[in-house]
Design brief:
This protein has 3 domains: about 150 residues, glycosyl hydrolase (family 31) (Immunoglobulin-like); about 190 residues, Glycosidases (TIM Barrel, Alpha-Beta Barrel), CATH 3.20.20; about 170 residues, Immunoglobulin-like (Sandwich), CATH 2.60.40.4040. The strands form 10 sheets. Strands 25-24-22-19-14-13-12-27-26 form a 9-stranded parallel sheet. It is built from 15 helices and 40 strands. With about 675 residues, the chain is an alpha+beta fold. Helix 5 packs across helix 11 and helix 7 packs antiparallel against helix 8. Bound molecules: ligand MIG. The site of ligand MIG has 10 residues, from loops.
């Protein structure tokens, strides 16, 4: 059951697709109070209560024991103490032997989640706006709670099938020639590849919707050539529009009055990559339409996928903030700077980026209301996502486009995926990626993945290999790294053979993983889940923080530590372990329930399958388009006949019907652990 409680006059967020009458009775469970404008919800936590949700945030699968702030932020260097990341997903599920419910705060401003931080036994949730709808979801199971939330907020975005292929990306690829080198590097070495991302370097002076004419003399031809080789180009688009007269998007934006303004009516400007930019008011429908159509030249050149960046929005500096920092410096010039003065000087300069003052200095117009940006801050990236998706649909309603964004809010999961932001080449960020994934799924973001290998810092070979082993299972499997870091394309490494085999396993599993993804998306299910969702009665499973359920009947347990050569893991029930080295070379082991130490040397990684369920492997291929998905090897541990419903479609239909695309695979295993050839 979903119930809605309305406080004051909520700001529109576009998150809910279900319209419900507001309850007249008070919100159960919580003690509700006001502090000025703020609305505060307080709840005593059960000692064993576990908290799932908050999508993109740091720390564990269970969110208990920290303070999180929903405030979309460009946080290049995030650690376990970072309170805000790029997206805000205000949905949290309380799960204990005493009670089960989910709460969604449909609030586009700052929301603070003190989840046993100030006091270990208390949760305090604070809405700064204090005007919002709160939804309470009470269902019989965790899985049903997740499903109900999707009913409330809408179906998850469907990417095209090629988006399940391996994607290579790097900040720095600046020409057709460089991109061709990357494509050839993969093809020559037999490393499967479906896409190459183009970062800001492809643009003319970092201006959106332009490309460098000398470096990309004929983008349409280049796109077509790449597509011949089954490789898609995926350009980046940033949120800010360079404020330069004569630059078409700026001129047409001005004409449409599309940009956010300050209180005095002047354009709000802040510097990002191209220098001073204006910021489209994506909360306005007419602005979304104008912006969505700006993608046309790229779409007409044959581009079928994009990533949207800097849409928190990230602000490098404004004139006001820089001036304030310099005047602080002036005050100290020549005088004696004690440590406090010195720090205040550093703070003044460090604080010129993404400054809260700047977010309070401009206005937006959601549904005709004039609202100061900070009150709706967390919607900015989400509505950029909607604008792009709407533009793609107008351009070609007959197919799916790839779209993933950095910033997001609940609701944006209907229009695109997200990547997990600027991680580092750290083992701890490998673990963070794993722990974030089920919570993203719970909030509706199924198409996601992290920068494999890590974005910042220099990767080591073994870390990239272990990242890829997680990436085999994430819907978005993208290797991405920052300018000036160690080259990270897999063909550059001495353990290339291991890495190639790992990526080849992804392609052998691709039809199966695509099937699992599509079934989850079309039935409002979760592709990744905490173990608690499947084994709510098993305290050991419920407390597991480094394994995930995948699809209907699988589980993953990646190696997350350097030099570990294996790991401890927990099996809630008897399962088949497939220990992969390559699509042709793997061990099949029957493991009893309980704790295990499994050995996994650097090139090895496991997939677990519940008894009487099957996994399908195809022979693989160089790209998702050249896979043979008729010839399968079914793997299972079974003591009776087993069946699997394989979902297959053309990979582009924007509104597929589940029932029309399922093929029943029936298996009669002769042995408990079986490997059966099936032709479909
Ligand atoms: O200020 O476009 O998260 O993936 O490579 C950095 C350059 C801007 C941040 C993105 C990252 C991308 C980078 N961008």
């Amino acid at each position: 059951m979903i119930r809605k409680y309305t406080f004051g006059t909520p700001l529109p967020t576009g998150a809910a697709v279900l319209s419900l009458p507001a309850e007249t009775s008070p919100l159960p469970w919580f003690d509700v109070s006001r502090e000025g404008e703020k609305l505060r919800l307080t709840l005593a936590l059960h000692p064993e209560e576990r908290l799932f949700g908050l999508g993109e945030s740091v720390r564990g699968i269970n969110k208990r024991g920290f303070l999180y702030r929903s405030w979309n932020s460009d946080v290049f260097s995030h650690t376990e103490s970072t309170e805000s990341l790029y997206g805000s997903h205000n949905f949290l599920v309380f799960f204990s032997p005493e009670r089960l419910f989910g709460i969604y705060l449909d609030d586009p401003g700052l929301v603070t989640w003190d989840l046993g931080y100030s006091r270990m036994d208390t949760a305090v949730i604070t809405s700064e706006n204090g005007q919002l709808d709160i939804y309470l979801l009470e269902e019989n199971s965790l899985t049903e709670t997740a499903r109900a939330f999707r009913r409330l907020t809408g179906k998850s975005y469907l990417p095209p099938r090629w988006a399940f292929g391996y994607i290579q990306s790097r900040w720095g690829y600046a020409s057709e020639k460089e991109i061709r080198t990357v494509a050839d590097g993969h093809r020559k070495q037999g490393i499967p590849l479906d896409g190459i991302c183009m970062d800001i370097d492809y643009m003319e002076a970092f201006r959106n919707f332009t490309w460098k004419k000398d470096a990309f003399p004929d983008l349409k031809r280049f796109c077509a050539e790449m597509k011949e080789e089954h490789i898609r180009l995926i350009p980046i688009i940033d949120a800010g529009i360079a404020a330069e007269e004569g630059y078409e998007p700026y001129d047409s934006g001005r004409e449409a009055d599309a940009f956010c303004r300050k209180a005095d009516g002047s354009e709000f400007r802040a510097a990002v990559w191209p220098g001073f930019c204006c910021f489209p008011d994506f909360l306005r429908k007419d602005v979304r339409r104008w912006f969505g159509d700006l993608y046309r030249p790229l779409l007409e050149a044959g581009v079928e996928g994009f990533w949207n960046d800097m849409n928190e929005p990230a602000l490098f500096y404004t004139e006001e903030r820089t001036a304030a920092a310099f005047s602080r410096a002036e005050e100290l010039r020549g005088g004696h700077a004690d440590y406090e003065a010195l720090w205040s000087l550093k703070d003044a300069f460090n604080g010129i980026a993404n400054n809260p003052e700047d977010y309070r200095s401009f206005w937006q117009e959601p549904e005709g209301r004039r609202v100061r940006h900070d009150r709706v801050h967390n919607l900015y990236g989400a509505f950029m996502t909607h604008a792009s998706a709407e533009g793609f649909r107008r351009f070609d309603p007959g197919k799916r486009f790839l779209l993933f964004s950095r910033s997001s809010f609940i609701g944006a999961h209907r229009s695109g995926g997200i990547w997990q932001g600027d991680n580092f080449s750290w083992w701890s960020h490998l673990k963070l990626a794993l722990q974030m994934l089920p919570n993203l799924n719970l909030c509706g973001f199924l198409y996601s993945g992290c920068d494999l290998g890590g974005f910042g810092c220099n990767v080591t070979e073994d870390l990239l290999e272990r990242f890829l082993q997680l990436g085999v299972f994430t819907p978005l499997m993208r290797n991405h790294s920052a300018l000036h870091t160690r080259d990270q394309e897999v063909y550059r490494f001495s353990i290339l053979d291991l890495m190639r085999n790992t990526i080849r396993v992804r392609y052998a599993l691709l039809p199966f993983l695509y099937s699992e993804f599509m079934k989850a998306a079309l039935t409002d299910g979760m592709y990744f889940r905490p173990l608690a969702f499947d084994y709510p009665e098993d305290p050991r499973a419920v407390a597991t923080e480094d394994q995930l359920m995948l699809g209907e009947a699988c589980m993953i347990a990646p190696v997350l530590e350097q030099n570990a050569a294996g790991r401890y893991m927990y099996l809630p029930e008897e399962m088949l372990m497939i220990r992969f080295r390559s699509p042709e070379d793997y061990d099949l082991l029957e493991l009893p329930p309980g704790d295990h130490r499994i050995s996994l040397s650097l090139g090895e990684f496991p997939l677990f399958v519940r008894k009487n369920h099957a996994v399908l492997l195809c022979p693989g291929g160089d790209s998702s388009e050249t896979l043979n998905d008729h010839d399968f090897t079914a793997l299972c541990l079974a003591d009776r006949p087993v069946s699997y419903d394989l979902y297959r479609d053309d990979g582009t239909d924007p509104a597929p019907l589940l029932s029309e695309h399922l093929t029943r695979v029936s298996l009669a295993p002769a042995d408990r652990v079986a490997k059966i050839h099936v032709v479909l």
